[in-house]
Amino acid sequence: MRIRELESEIAQIPAGPIIEIREQTDQENSVMSPTDPITITEDTIEGYPRRSHLTMQDGNISASGPTSMWSTFPDESVPPRESKVPHPGLIYRYTFERSPSIPLHLQSQDIQMSERCEWDRYLPKLNSGVGFTRFEHDTLLYRCFNYHALWLRTLEPDLFLRDMLLELTTHPDSADATKYSRGLTYYSPFLHCALMALATTFSTDPGIRSKHIREQFARYAKQLLEDACERPTLTAIHGLAFLSEYHGSLGERGLAYLYFGMGCRLVRALGLCINGRKMVDSKMITEQELTSRVHLFWALFSQDKLMVCKLISIL
User: Fold this and answer.
1) What SS3 state is found at 72?
2) How many Å apart are CA 24 and CA 20, to the nearest integer?
3) Do 261 and 250 form a contact (C-beta atoms < 8 A)?
4) Are the beta carbons of 260 and 307 closer than 8 angstroms?
5) Residues 242, 195 contacting (CB under 8 angstroms)
6) Residue 173, Cβ neighbours under 10 Å: how many?
7) Residue 236 CB-half CA count within 13 A
């Protein structure tokens, strides 16, 4: 069928001397330099209707190819996505940011909320002799965000800490927790565990930095993996990227490529490589979500190229 379409398109091309076509091409090339940006208009998109496009299914964005059955279904009617969060400007504060000389009730609201935060709600329960306290947890997050995650900007630290505070200060069975969890874009239990599996490598405590303890965080993250990928969001991609780096830090290159490849597949499934400006205009997603999608795509793109260079150097 596609071959016939191409043949009919070729048949409609007006015949003309090759010299005239070449002269016309040369003129066009002289007008536009190779560095000029190409503007994608609605006409350009409509001219290629068989390309993949973004759809909204079950409240989540996904990419549908031209042969997918989802491409024949109309988009869901979803309410406009609000860019407001319940506590704007508040993020999880590390325990060492609290001033011990000032009473808690006189300190900032985010510090007071952070003290009530169940920071280990979704983390594996380690033996008390290990010494994995909130101070250790916060220190590892701080070091990982400042000396690792900032490198390719795979995850925006402030957005993760904001959603972490919102998720872990509400009771998991409350109505508010259910309502807020649906709108969380940058925190999930799977991502938290995967992040800690990598962050523990920055610990100065040999026990916490040991492979045995790090494996417990990674194993717990993998138990949550299927649920995270069943209805994937950006946090699933973030978590898979951190799991990949966790295995890479242990020299397990095969598993590192495996989980990174799964993350790249989700990038394709969620359509991070497709322009989502129309969804922002229709208020299906916020401007911040679009920016995060673009940043995550290019972060993984760059990381993919670095992993390829590393593989070539090994071979």
Assistant:
1) helix
2) 6
3) no
4) yes
5) yes
6) 7
7) 22
Tokens of 166: 């919102």
- Show the tokens assigned to 63: 């990419």
Largest Cα separation within the chain, whole Å, is 86
- Cα separations in angstroms, 29 against 22, 33, 34, 40: 10, 7, 8, 18
Residue 192 β-bridge partners: none
Q: How far apart are the first and last CA of the chain?
A: 43
CB neighbourhood size of 108 (10 A): 14
Backbone angles phi, psi at 280, to 5 degrees: -70, -45
Query: What does the CA dihedral 25, 29, 35, 39 come to, rounded to 10 degrees?
Result: -60
Give 10-residue mean pLDDT values along the chain (315 residues): 64 59 51 44 47 63 61 58 65 93 91 94 91 96 87 86 93 56 78 97 95 97 95 94 95 93 92 84 84 92 86 58
Give CA angle at 290 (83, 233), nearest 5°: 90
Torsion (CA) 13, 14, 18, 22 in degrees, nearest 10: -70
- Strand 53-57 versus strand 60-64 pairing type: antiparallel
Give residue for tokens 């993949």: 52
- Mention every residue, 6+ apart, whose C-beta is less than 8 A from residue 305: none
Give whole-number Cα distances, 261 to 5, 240, 243, 244, 255, in Å: 34, 9, 11, 9, 10
Q: Taken in order 232, 237, 242, 246, is the CA torsion positive or negative?
A: positive
Contact between residue 59 and residue 68 where contact means Cβ atoms under 8 Å apart? no
Name which of 134, 233, 241, 239 is nearest 185 in CA terms. Answer: 233
